[in-house]
Design a protein that fits this description.
Elements (H helix, E strand, L loop, with lengths): L5 E7 L12 E6 L5 H9 L17 E6 L3 E5 L10 H17 L3 E9 L6 H12 L4 E6 L6 H15 L9 E3 L8 H12 L1
Parallel strand pairs: 2-4, 2-5, 5-6, 6-7
Antiparallel strand pairs: 1-3, 3-4
The structure holds guanosine-5'-triphosphate and magnesium ion (MG).
Length: 196
């Protein structure tokens, strides 16, 4: 799919204030610093459309981007950042949970996982919660450029093994890098198919 137009629409903390749910929508969720905003910029080939940062906790709002005037991409705040207060963490979790459970046009939620780390409880629990709430999701392993090929393959296999402890089947997944652009074509093609 060609990205002809990518426009920022609105930021807010309340799912009720999001744009009218009249177009297909895809949101990016995951731990703080996993690379959600960077991946959005990479997919859209816009360097600074979504705000990124080396320190976690950059995105604190629900950010809507309108693509090709046909569908929305959504950058969500990261969950689980340990260095903010418990109440702030709960507030962010609340924003994410309400968004995920109440957005009727959410075609697919992309759950981002940093492939350099061993499976984290917070991500596995989040995906289980999605399953319980019948929210369709797809995994994107991020920062693939940071691992050598064999290490990357091992990490993916290890993650699959861990998923199989709670899932009968491995959810669909992609492997990406915002620096090498790995995964770009595949993810855009996947969105294009779902849009139809
Ligand atoms: P929050 O908004 O804080 O939740 O973070 P985020 O998930 O949006 O992460 P962000 O895109 O801001 O990236 C965090 C850091 O990781 C930045 O320093 C990025 O440059 C870096 N980063 C993101 N994706 C990649 C990647 O694919 N490869 C490499 N090498 N670095 C990446
Ligand atoms: Mg971000």
């Amino acid at each position: 799919m060609k990205i002809k137009k990518a426009e920022f629409v609105i930021s807010n903390t309340d799912v009720r204030k999001c744009p009218k749910a009249d177009m297909p929508e895809y949101a990016f969720v995951g731990r703080s610093n996993v690379g959600k905003s960077s991946l959005i910029n990479m997919l859209l080939e816009r360097k600074k459309l979504a705000k990124t940062s080396q320190s976690p906790g950059k995105t604190l709002l629900i950010n809507h981007f309108l693509i090709n005037k046909e569908w929305y991409l959504v950058d969500l705040p990261g969950y689980g950042y340990a260095k903010v207060s418990k109440s702030k963490r709960e507030e962010i979790a609340n924003i994410i949970n309400k968004y995920v459970n109440n957005r009727s046009n959410l075609y697919c939620l992309f759950v981002l996982i940093d492939i350099r780390h061993s499976p984290q409880k917070i991500d596995l629990e989040f995906m289980e919660w999605l399953g319980q709430n019948k929210v369709p999701f797809t995994i994107i392993f991020t920062k693939a450029d940071k691992l050598k090929k064999t290490k990357l393959e091992d990490s993916i296999e290890n993650y699959k093994t861990s998923l199989l402890k709670s899932w009968e089947e491995i959810p669909e997944y992609f492997v990406s890098s915002s620096t090498s652009k790995a995964g770009r074509e595949e993810i855009l093609e996947y969105i294009e198919k779902l849009n139809k």
